Request: fold
Amino acid sequence: MYLDIEMLLRHLWVVGMTGAGKSSAYCFWILNLLKLGYPIGLIDPNNDLVTDVVDQLAMLPKKRWEQLVVWNIRNTVSAIGLNVVELKPGEDAPTKFAFLASVIAKIFAADPLITARMQRVMMHTFWLLSRFNLTLVEYQKVLTDKNFRMQLVALLREEEYELKDYWLHEFTDNPKQVTDWTQSSLNKIGAMTANTSLKRILGQPRSTLDFRLLMDEEISLLVALCIGALGEPGKFSESRKLSRT
Ligand SMILES: Nc1ncnc2c1ncn2[C@@H]1O[C@H](COP(=O)(O)OP(=O)(O)OP(=O)(O)O)[C@@H](O)[C@H]1O
Ligand SMILES: [Mg+2]
Reply:
């Protein structure tokens, strides 16, 4: 099927029964776009479409290969780092981390009754992690190990009163309440960091992939998420269930 570039500026939904040729059509379009020099971003929940594209890259001129990043989430040899709580220059911490917390709440369809407090806990935990160049892998330790948490809080400067005040005056001091306050976010973040592949990616203090840079430099990105190997959807639905309790 012929696809006009104008059409690609809109949403496109390809539907058809299994074996109808959906993936083959995507593969054909992607290779043609790459050949014409258009940067593309492909996030494949499995691995087959990325593999099909990569298998046929030889048909492209060599200079196009140089503008391409292929990322297989299961690659254990050279795992790309993605520290989602890393603060880039010019970014505002409360805005960035409130947004990240709301995205996570949405992904897990968290119960609205507990969402507001959970998002506040997540936002301030992300902020604290980021302040000390830590990662999501240390999320659990911050919330379950009071000594560790207080050591970090003690290192905050006077002018960081907003973050400091939350941990010293708003976050519960009652050990019994801590579980209530933290369980809903711990089961969500825990579901991500418990997976070995994701832990390797999310646990690196420095991100080695910069999506902004890829877009600015017009570099294509092909990601094979291999969702089955990430423990989904079992862990995901389990977390959703827990978040409603
Ligand atoms: N236009 C075509 N003409 C002939 N064969 C085709 C055509 N498009 C795809 N095929 C063949 O049909 C088979 C299935 O195609 P494809 O994997 O693209 O289907 P799909 O719609 O993605 O299926 P699924 O939903 O199972 O992923 C492949 O062997 C492919 O080579
Ligand atoms: Mg397919």
